[in-house]
Model the fold of this input.
Amino acid sequence: MTTTKFNIDTSLTQIISSDIAFQYRIIPFQQNEDKALFKTDNVSIDTLKQELEIVLGMSILLEKETSANIDQYLLVNYRKREINTSISSLNFTDDFLMNLLFEAKEIGSSDIHFEAFEKNCRVRFRIDGKLIEKYVVLLSEYPKIVNRIKIMASLDISEKRLPQDGRINLATEQDDFDIRVSSLPTLHGEKIVLRILTKNGLVVNLDDLGFTHQELGIYKQSVKKPNGIVLISGPTGSGKTTTLYATLKLLNTKDTNILTIEDPIEYTLEGVNQVQLKESIGLDFASTLRTFLRQDPDIIMVGEIRDAKTANMAIRAALTGHLVLSTIHTNSAWATISRLIDMGIPPFLIASTLNVSVAQRLVRKLCVTCKEEHLITKNDFPLRYEIPKALKKQFKAKGCNECYHTGYKGRKAIYEIIPINKELIENIEDKKIEIEAYLKENKIATLKDNAISLVEKGITSIEEIYSFINE
Done:
């Protein structure tokens, strides 16, 4: 269980900035019109009260609190700024928005959600795959923020009935990054989602993603073949793109011509020719793939195989001596083969071109500072789930200063990798798609196996992998 004792309401945290909270060691607990109640461990109550009333422009009430509790309140509800954004002379909307963007980048948020409802609006950050409410915005201020985002992304501020997509670049002396912008008309206003991207190339290596030693060997062997198809499956947000980019980083040499078609381009890689998908003008996956074949490529990366047309073009590229990397939405590595057959791809073509099928997911890692050891109980697992004999203990999330009281810090990928060999080729050609016995016989770990392995090692919790073992 994560610590919630020191959480305060989002609307209260916004009364003061993080800088003021840490500078004066104050925590807001109540606000009525032009009066606010704060708790503090500051010994000079009267002096502090006078100074805060000048700084905040409201009547202040102060209550004493222990230093230990103030420390906890600050760590749970506020975060010290470490980046000087070097932005000045901004109005309220710009100042709020810029500070919000740099805060999200600083704490490792992948997405920012701006949402409008009947009585208020909110801003949420996605951190380690989970959405956390960070700010409440007044209804009167929300349209200004939306319009400012749309102007920065070169979108049409007068168009509020149709979805729009754009891109923002933010650069300071300390940082330089891109933001993908998506707007969606909803009942009470436009919902905006910002995806934070990096422009500085991907620093992640295949060795650091989460492959076991055996899986890494199989995968590297498959992607270093001169031709064929490598498919990675998983839902949105499962880390497929990161795995693809880490693979391109491995394969990107001076004597190799690499072409990619992506929607969108999430990272820029030096030495790789990247094309942004634009279906509105006919630049889709299939037509771009056809053009790629006239560009003398060695390796082609297709952002996603969405339909039979794209799948057929990928097969054609592999048959003509190219290595094709792509993603597909299926639940397991073997289900990818079934999906291709359902698309109308002849099994003999799948068998002759597919090098490896990979499925992956992301799981949050327990904070090593505060995780707690517990005994295994049947209530922790789904009904009728057979608990592995090797699983003797478990660790649960608690929450501490290091992980900002979430109980988790960072994420790790788990994989299911099926290399295509002669035996599997025969099964594919005969449309035999029962695979469980084959996986056990060849000691190929499934997503479920690898998820349980992380629990055994104390890396993650049963709660985090519950959805995998409940399938």
